[in-house]
Design goal:
Number of strands: 10
Shape: elongated
Radius of gyration: 36 Å
Oligomer: single chain
Largest sheet: 6 strands, mixed
Helix content: 55-70%
Distance between the termini: 36 Å
Length: about 625
């Protein structure tokens, strides 16, 4: 039985495919600021390259003088001076060429540096919708491969165009001055070559675009696979992943082969068409020389100028390929740069320096983009400074969205979320997230030492606040057991630590900031109940007088809070203290009955289990 082909469509781009037209080259005009930024350097290089072309154009005239002196018996042979002059011109052109290349290499490196910094800085301010659209592998491909393609046209494109035109003009000037009739015959095929080159470049754009997309797909697949290598190995799916990677990389190889094949055709056709001009010179120019209408030296000089003119024309294919590839890269880069951040940072200068920690949700309703139902609906809560408030509810009830609204990780409407009476939309985002520190649900550690992770926001911290935070997060004992203590390298994404140790490390990283408001999104899920009790005790000691908002699915966690809110389908269905909610006998009491091992809760627990079983039986009968 033939194995089912895996669906790899998620690794393919989702934007609309456009027909190949010359307007794709218009993407290159957006690189003009880089040309302006390096205009003086580019201008000096251009001047040097034009000087090099002038030196090159003088060589055929010296050859003409030398050959004419040999062909004319009435004058003495003149070889020494033209030879020395040619050597001096070649040496001068060599120096100019080496200098120009070195300077342009520095410009290209600077352009790469600027573009990659700009891309990175831009992505730092994006929200979840952006990262849903662009995968990590795709962004890496744009920052590496596309930037490399773009730098070619910035560093060489404009200079090469001017040098190309200058070379043709100078070469044609000398050719016309030597033999107007022969010049006409030589330039006849050149317009055909140029037109064909432009037409073929129009066809190139989709090939290079597809090649870059396929490269992004390979990067995305590899990045996701490496991040999930534990799951792959745990399920013994290595062979399947190898096969899937083979399919993605084979598609990329096909795209590269297709683009390279077409590029090869262009590079084959262009020299073939331009070879007509040397044939014309050999036949027609040779006939003119034999007839005495031009001298042998003129014939040689004309041939040299013809090569000077046709060589850039022969390279049209390569130049257009460079411009087309750079246009494809520029389009992909500016797709990212044109993506506006989901959160507008428009701070208000009226925000005071001191924050007491009062958090207010006023008729807060929010729907995620493309969602069928609102994540939050008419939430009204007023958290007083120093209060500990817990949120509890089933998965998808809106708890995480509520906490994220405080630090604007979701862009809630203006006039719905306040800190000390000031709309969170008026805070500078950097200050808002320093005022309200969020400990995320999924722990993430950088490939650094444990100390560097704990002091991520301020690496200059002394040991005392580090150990205080570690004690509060019940992490200090684990740190002392490590051979290198705080200097222990945690590996990529904290791979050397257990799930509980990673969660406690991220909690300590949040506690160390001593922010007026602390938001904890279910950050006890990977720790046992005994450790959880120690952490809650440390929180009570370290967070005394400061506002704390936490999410948990455990009654044992939220019972210590000053107030508890139960959410369901984005609405608050219950609120109160632990004792008040138990007396209410609603959702919270049911959940406490399921999780509790106390005798008093056994009856409620058995009833809930029986209700669930009856529901399942009814579904099966239906």
């Amino acid at each position: 039985m033939k194995a089912e082909r895996p669906d790899l469509s998620r690794y393919q781009p989702t934007f609309r495919r456009e027909r190949s037209t010359f307007r794709h080259l218009g993407h290159l005009k957006r690189l003009a600021p880089y040309l302006v930024r390096h205009r003086y350097v580019l201008g000096s290089v251009l001047f040097g390259m034009l000087v090099g072309r002038v030196l090159e154009a003088a060589v055929p005239l010296l050859l003409k003088s030398a050959f004419d002196s040999l062909a004319d018996p009435t004058v003495a042979p003149n070889l020494l001076m033209p030879t020395l002059a040619i050597l001096a011109l070649v040496l001068g052109r060599f120096v100019v060429h080496v200098w120009s290349r070195a300077v342009m290499q520095r410009v290209s490196i600077a352009v790469c540096y600027d573009l990659r910094k700009r891309l990175f800085n831009h992505t730092q301010r994006q929200g979840p919708m952006f990262f849903n659209r662009y995968s990590t592998g795709d962004l890496m491909s744009r920052a590496i491969n596309d930037v490399r393609m773009v730098r070619q046209v910035v560093s060489w494109g404009a200079v090469n165009i001017i040098v190309f035109v200058f070379t043709i003009v100078v070469g044609l000037y000398y050719m016309i001055s030597l033999s107007p009739a022969l010049t006409v015959w030589v330039v006849i095929p050149l317009p055909l070559v140029a037109v064909l080159g432009f037409i073929m470049s129009r066809w190139m754009f989709p090939y290079y675009r597809d090649q870059q997309e396929a490269m992004a797909a390979v990067n995305t697949f590899a990045q996701e696979n490496f991040n999930g290598i534990r799951a792959v190995q745990a399920l013994a799916r290595e062979d399947q992943e190898i096969r899937r990677f083979g399919e993605v990389s084979t598609h990329y190889a096909h795209m590269v082969y297709r683009a390279s094949r077409f590029h090869g055709v262009v590079n084959l056709v262009m020299p073939l068409l331009t070879s007509v001009s040397p044939v014309i010179i050999m036949v027609y120019g040779g006939a003119l020389a034999l007839a005495g209408e031009i001298t042998v030296g003129t014939f040689v000089a004309f041939f040299a100028y013809m090569m000077m003119v046709t060589m850039p024309v022969r390279m049209i294919g390569m130049s257009l390929a460079m411009f087309t590839a750079s246009a494809a890269g520029a389009q992909r880069i500016y797709e990212v740069l044109d993506h506006r951040p989901e959160i507008d940072d428009n701070p208000n200068d009226a925000i005071p320096d001191g924050i007491a920690g009062r958090v207010t949700f006023r008729n807060l309703s929010y729907s995620h983009p493309d969602a069928d139902a609102p994540a939050l609906e008419d939430v009204d809560i007023d958290v007083t400074p120093g209060e500990t408030v817990a949120f509890l509810g089933r998965v998808g009830s809106g708890k995480s969205t509520l906490l994220r609204s405080v630090v604007r990780l979701v862009d809630t409407p203006r006039g719905t979320v306040f800190i000390d009476g000031h709309d969170v939309c008026d805070f500078p985002i950097s200050r808002l997230r320093a005022t309200a520190t969020m400990v995320p649900q999924d722990p993430f550690l950088f490939s650094e030492t444990l100390r560097a992770n704990l002091t991520y926001d301020d690496p200059t911290r002394t040991d005392e606040p580090i150990w205080n935070a570690a004690d509060a997060a019940s992490l200090s004992e684990a740190i002392r057991e490590f051979h290198d203590g705080l200097m222990t390298a945690v590996g990529e994404r904290g791979i050397t630590l257990s799930g509980g140790q990673k969660q406690r490390s991220t909690l300590a990283r949040g506690l160390i900031r001593e922010a007026p408001i602390l938001l904890m999104d279910d950050c006890f899920s990977s720790v046992d109940t005994e450790t959880e009790e120690r952490i809650l005790g440390g929180l009570k000691r370290l967070r005394a007088g400061r506002t704390t908002l936490l999410i948990s699915h455990r009654v044992s966690t939220v019972r210590h809070a000053d107030r508890i809110f139960v959410l369901d389908h984005g609405r608050i269905v219950e609120s109160g203290t632990h004792e008040q909610l138990l007396a209410l006998g609603g959702h919270y009491a049911d959940l406490e009955g399921l999780q509790s091992n106390q005798d008093a809760a056994q009856e409620r627990r058995q009833r809930l289990i029986a209700d669930l079983e009856q529901g399942e039986t009814a579904l099966e009968g239906a």
